[in-house]
Description:
There is one protein chain. This protein is of the alpha/beta class. It has a single domain (2-258), classed as Acetylglutamate kinase-like (Carbamate kinase), CATH 3.40.1160. The chain has eight helices and 14 strands. It has helices at 10-13, 16-28, 42-49, 65-89, 130-138, 161-174, 206-214, 222-234; strands at 2-8, 32-37, 56-57, 60-61, 94-97, 108-109, 121-122, 142-145, 148-150, 156-158, 178-185, 203-205, 239-244, 255-258. The strands form four sheets. The protein has an eight-stranded mixed β-sheet with strand order 5-8-2-1-11-13-14-12, with helices on both faces. Strand 3 (56-57) and strand 4 form a beta hairpin. The longest helix has 25 residues, at 65-89. The radius of gyration is 17 Å and the shape is globular.
Amino acid sequence: MEITVVKIGGNVIDRPEDLTVFLKKFAALPGNKILVHGGGKMASKFSAKLDIPTKMIDGRRVTDSQTIGIVTMVYAGLINKTITAQLQSYGCNAAGLSGADAGMIKAVKRSPYPVDFGFVGDIPTDGVNAGLLMKFIDMELVPVFCSITADGQGVLLNCNADTVARSIAGALSFSDAAVRLIYCFEKQGLLSDPNDDNSVIPLINSDNCEKLKNEGIITSGMIPKIDNAFEALNEGVKEVVIKSYFNLDKTDSGTIVVNR
């Protein structure tokens, strides 16, 4: 069985017209597929309305006891159900989910040392219930996951959406599925010059990855994306591509990640 796991970035979610373009292309993708989405800036906007300060460390959200409530409402609620409803209108039989639903994705609360990110989770190797997920696919449903998970003890945790996508792809690969993982965002791929959309690096491997990090080409939010891409390959994922949401339906675009 072949399965495509697609993760869409928050900057696209923040722009309704771009999100619509992406969702139409996703709905038209043939075969078995799964969508994973982040939250964009909407959680920060809701926090501001409720006078709850948004705390960021190195570009990553600190999810304290108040913020976990906000991100759960926004990610698992408004964004997830809006995406699911749109996909349904395009003829895609989507089912909106969080990792907490049916214990689909279990995470472990991250250690507060050296930095306390609050209710942020990390997903262990056996954290994804691949067997149950396959039942959704067998029913010809299209799972749409947000980045909210749970620890199995009743505690909700906020996870990195790139990691959620990689964990799902890796778990399905262990189940002998041929999995393709696509990270979609607003850029054409990994760029050698962030200000030049035509400077796409067509291929990145483990040999030149560290060089690109040292040169400052791979920075900030691209680092977890690249790290998760290599981890996915190590877990048996067949192919990993980083590309523009606009080119989701084009096979000859973006940056291909290879583990050699």
